[in-house]
Amino acid sequence: KYLEPRLKSLNAKTPKAALDQAVQFLTEDRSVMQTVTANKEIYTALKEGVKVTYLDKHGEQQTDRIKVIDWKKPSNNHFLIVSQLWVAGDPYRRRPDLVGFVNGLPLLFIELKAPDQNIKHAFTDNLRDYKDTISQIFWYNGFVMLSNGSDAKVGSITAPWEHFCDWKKINDEEEAGIVDLPTAIRGTCEKSRFMDIIENFCIFMEASGGLNKLVAKNHQYLGVNNSIQAVLDSRNNQGRLGVFWHTQGSGKSASMMFFSQKVLRKIPGNWTFLIVTDRTELDNQIYESFQNAGVVTEGHAQ
Asked: I need a labelling partner for 147 at 20 to 30 A (CA). Which of 111, 157, 189, 248 fits?
């Protein structure tokens, strides 16, 4: 209902045959794939455009990329939230609490529990089941939110429970953190923030256990965007960028990857990133992290 009109609107000069190819790609059955692999395939198409080939009016083959989302102007997209949506699996049917759509694609998944229930039940009793029984809705997912009203956590489709984290600050690290559903909604689901998180704060990493998806935590999102603003203001600040400080185990490598990919995607220029470590082991580790996430693609220089 919403996908085809939005594709046509965002790609006004593209022939219908090419738009039909894009719709077919986005809606094709991926049940033989692992959910996270299907998610990465669709995510890449959302960011870079769906690659299509078609014959132009002169009979010559053309290659193009169909824009699925307008990342530059969030208001050009169609946003819809659906409560108690029935989703048919094989052979099951399930009814998630809230599913958020952008241009007809389900990018947001919210599971709610009663205020007197532990929020972890949303993960163990519901989300795990949904990923098994209606996995197709997660092929498109940007991130998952779990809440009982007084508590709310955000994570990816591959995140274990311990990696679902509070989102308690909206605009600035100096805010007094509030852990509840309204704060998490305002911090992640306002249109420009939601688009920013999906576009610039998701990465896929190959690990020993397979492919994982990482979504930024609250402090990473705020810190990286402060760093991006420092880059934009660097001329006025005599080239000084400041310090992005992390505690041990708080995701320094992921923050560097989020920062690098957003700079490369959003700020024009021929950028070089210099990473300095104090041990060869860390040097190899950070390079492998960047390479596994696809942030760098060339061979490892010694």
From this structure: 248
